[in-house]
Amino acid sequence: VKFEGGKLPSSIGGLIHLRFLRLLNARISHLPSSMRNLKRLLYLNLNVAIHEPVHVPNVLREMLELRYLSLPLLMHDKTELELGDLVNLENLWGFSTQHSSVTDLLHMTKLRSLNVSLSERCTFETLSSSLRQLRNLERLSLDCSYKIYLGELDLDFIHLKEFDLDFIHLKELGLGVRMSKIPDQHQFPPHLEHISLFDCRIEEDPMPILERLLHLKSVKLRYDAFVGRRMVCSKGGFPQLCALEISEESELEEWIVEEGS
């Protein structure tokens, strides 16, 4: 629906027994402070999918029963969200290191799915040390691509070398960060089953690394994940692969698939 002036009515705060609220694609630019009354929410999706920043008041910290939270892709620069008390969260999407402290994640030990939007305020090393505490994490996505599109982030994320991705329970990994070379095999989770790379602009062929990850069942390369011209899948690689998606790789000219790959 389209709300007048792009504002969610403050009367939403009267629905104190509400358990589920999804504002997906609602084109809202302003959320009311009365939302702090929705203390019984289990599910909250604020992914309103607009191209301008959303005003989000610091009211989420009081929703202690939340299990699922999806935050807007873009928030006002001065937005500061305290999320450390949301200890029951199992799914968190759109967590921004620009608008929340990465140490808030230390308390979310029940998290199984996490999407992090990166900013200059947080190094991979700092993020890695915080994520170490999330023993139940099964799905992780790291993304800074939208910042690059907006011209707000001009960093070479070769610093991915500092990031240890070796989480024992992690099954799915998404990387939307710039890097000239994919991390070495030993830096990936030992039981990784699904990987998605997007807008990474990797210059070296990622296949020699990926095909040695023995448990991979699906690989997705999207939106110039790889900007080299030649890609080779060698014999004996990808022993369990069931699905491979290669889309919008504008520089790719030659793909060699050896017999037995």
Automatic annotation (TrEMBL):
Task: Please report the stretch or stretches of sequence annotated as the Disease resistance R13L4/SHOC-2-like LRR domain.
Answer: 11-247
Record PANTHER family: TUBULIN-SPECIFIC CHAPERONE E, UBIQUITIN-LIKE DOMAIN-CONTAINING PROTEIN
- Biological source species: Arabidopsis lyrata subsp. petraea (Northern rock-cress)
Read off the InterPro entries from this record. Answer: LRR_dom_sf (IPR032675), LRR_R13L4/SHOC2-like (IPR055414)
- Keywords linked to the UniProt accession: Repeat
One Pfam family cited in the UniProt record for this chain: LRR_14
- Protein name in UniProt: Disease resistance protein RPP8
